[in-house]
Amino acid sequence: MKKITVIVVVCLLFIAGALYMRMSGNPSQSVPDQSASDMIVVGFSQVGAESDWRMANTKSMRETFTEARGYKLLFRDAQQKQSNQIEAIREFISQKVNYIILAPVMEEGWDPVLKEAKDAGIPFVIVDRMIKTSDESLYTSWVGSDFRKEGGTAMTWMEKNFASDKDLVIVHLQGSRGSSAQIGRTEGLQAGVSKNLGWKIVVRDSGDFTQVKGKEVMARILKQYDKIDVLYCENDNMAFGAMEAMDEVGRTYGVKGEVTIISFDATHKGLEETLAGKINYNVECNPLHGPRVEQIIQLMENGNTPSKFAYVDEKAFDAASITKEDIDARSY
Ligand code: GYE
Predict the structure, then answer these.
(1) What is the pLDDT of residues 144-193, one digit of tens each?
(2) In which band, very low, low, confident or very high, does the pLDDT at 2 lie, cut at 50, 70 and 90?
(3) What does each C-alpha distance from 112 to 89, 116, 134 come to in angstroms?
(4) Could you tell me what percentage of the chain is helix, strand and coil, using 3-state DSSP and rounding each to the nearest 5?
(5) I need a labelling partner for 37 at 20 to 30 A (CA). Which of 4, 118, 157, 192 fits?
(6) What is the pLDDT of residue 20?
(7) What 3-state DSSP class applies to 74?
(8) How far is the CA of 124 from the centre of ligand 1 (A)?
(9) Around Cβ 162, how many Cβ atoms within 10 Å?
(10) Could you tell me the distance, in angstroms and rounded to a whole number, from the CA of residue 204 to the centre of ligand 1?
């Protein structure tokens, strides 16, 4: 009899212990986590980490969509591959995020995955570069730069500095082909060249917006062309690479050199090179999209419809007039 009592007590203690462990072992399983469920879940598919512009853009997004500010950010770096972006978007859909944000590598090819997101009822915001779609209702909003206008700004500067009939040898370093930033900036140059009869683009190649490729492509071009008047370079990092290539073979550039450099982005380092007279003209492209995207999301959270397109205001910097204060006043 005594033995049975001991066994029963041991069993009861065991069951009580197991129950206690279960309840206290993992608080998030037994007590629903209020703060996590209140958060707005945002999936962001970023292009990559190819340039200083991109790093500043990622920083702006990460600083905006923080847990302290009520967001859970799922960040995916696509390493400049559209297939990685499509995979990330499908993952966001299956995770039932509240919003999907896409900085598209290129313009074409998004319709099927946009449709999947729409069918799942997830609002889609496009940032930075644009997309081409047959159905504009597949996304809610876009915010970014007017790349064609940036190219036009560069042409206005060229027209002020070079006569229309001057024989001008132009080298064109393009960004990632098929991206809006490349397409718009290329169209700008193309329009300028077709208007000014002396101007010739002697070579055009892509450096994929990176410093390494910019250097590689420029090194090849320098071997083929002894005389270059203008380097039209579709971002700062490729310009840095091209400058390294020119330094290595003793070709001069900038305000005091042989090759006039026009660049885009106006990143911190890009503007320092402009102030130093190495880049002649730098057209701004503003990467601080985090707060702009948040504003779009907040409008939707409050039941409002954000505007379909929002262009960012941008300026440009001339080596002849830029000041240190211009650089210091900027946060990127
Ligand atoms: O100019 C370049 C980056 O899409 C505006 O992408 C962006 C461009 C930017 O890699 O530096």
Answers:
(1) 999 999 999 999 999 999 999 999 999 999 999 999 999 999 999 999 99
(2) low
(3) 11, 6, 11
(4) 50, 20, 35
(5) 118
(6) 41
(7) strand
(8) 21
(9) 19
(10) 18
Closest CA to 204 of 171, 242, 179: 171
| pLDDT at residue 292, as a whole number | 98
Quote the ligand 1 centre to 76 CA distance (angstroms). Answer: 17
Closest alpha carbon to 315 in 292, 282, 273: 282
Of residues 100 and 14, the one with the higher pLDDT is: 100
State both tokens at 241: 């690479």
**Predicted structure pTM score:** 0.89
Alpha helices per DSSP H over 48-179 = 52-64, 82-94, 111-119, 147-161
Say what the pLDDT of residue 5 is.
Answer: 54
Pocket of ligand 1 (CB under 6 A): 50-51, 53-54, 128-129, 145, 181, 209, 235, 264-265, 285
Signed CA dihedral, 177, 265, 149, 101: sign only: positive
CB count, 10 Å around CB of 127? 24
Phi and psi for 165 in degrees, rounded to 5? -100, 5
Among 82, 150, 265, 312, which is best to mutate for testing ligand 1, by the most ligand atoms less than 8 A from CB? 265
Q: Is the pLDDT of residue 16 over 60?
A: no
**Ligand 1 centroid vs 282 CA: distance in angstroms?**
14
Q: Of 53, 127, 283, which is best to mutate to test ligand 1, by the most ligand atoms within 8 angstroms of its C-beta?
A: 53
Share of the chain above pLDDT 70, in %: 89
Q: Any idea which of 5-19, 34-48, 255-269 has the lowest mean pLDDT?
A: 5-19
Q: What pLDDT does 1 receive?
A: 45
